Amino acid sequence: MRYSVLTALLAAPALISAAPVQSVGSPAAAKQTVERYYAAIDRGDFRAAYLAWGDGGRASGKSFDRFRQGFAATARSRVVAGAPYGADAGMSQRWIQVPVDVFATLKNGERQHFRGSYTLHRVAEGVGAPASKTRWHIASTKLVAVR
Q1: Backbone phi and psi for residue 2, each to the nearest 5 degrees, phi listed first
Q2: pLDDT for 107-145, tens place per residue?
Q3: Can you name the residues that pair with 145 across neighbouring β-strands?
């Protein structure tokens, strides 16, 4: 028994180091950005959600106060993000689409379902941009209500 526990403990670092490390610019990181955005909304951390948008939140097209007020009637939110697609690279710019289904429950109990996609943007590493610009940020969204 001691041998199997010791073997497992010695093997654990190898298992941990074998786990894939996601680059901040990977498609998986883009999907995680959208998932973290909705997790922030759901827990009421509207500052973090706002900052998921490019240009310090201004890419949302709203001031922070208007952004926060847009969720005043929302009790819960959840996103099901699909596989990112349409990766596009131009010079030092990177763009990608993340398809989503968004489910919201309003404070009055009404349920909503939206479908669409988010366009995310980042600057390529190695071009002298600050690290904050090389992570994915939401650039725009197209969502329509599902009836």
Answers
A1: -60, -35
A2: 999 999 999 999 999 998 776 767 778 899 999 999 999
A3: 114
